[in-house]
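call fold target=indole-3-glycerol-phosphate synthase
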Amino acid sequence: MPSILDDIVAAKRLELAEAMQAVSYADVEHAAAEQPRPLNLSGALTSGGIRLIAEVKKASPSRGLLSPNFDPVHLAHTYVSNGAAAISCLTDPRFQGELAHLSSIKQSGASGRAPVIRKDFIFDPYQVYEARAAVPTASS
């Protein structure tokens, strides 16, 4: 009997195959290379005192919808304005996340003030390039 992790990996492999069919590996790698240099995540987290990574998350598989009026840009700006050292943005569909949330945070300017981390099940370099192409500030 497959575990929940097996199910997640199988679903992510399908998502990855679809993404790679839509945008080639070479194209996503090129798009990532065109982005500005990322902010220093380790520097942001070790600059003294308590450092917080604030999470942009619309829903949870166990708790359902967490934010009915979800606005990732507003959340990111609020977190950064209140001292967050970095922003973690869920892009996994099980959390109602998507890469567009990363892009909107980047375009809003919040990503220029704090590193933004793509939070997802990452197991292929394509996904790292995809995150960098969507948001040029950090990936995990």
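return ok
The first helix runs from residue 4 to 22. The CA atoms of residues 37 and 136 lie 7 Å apart.
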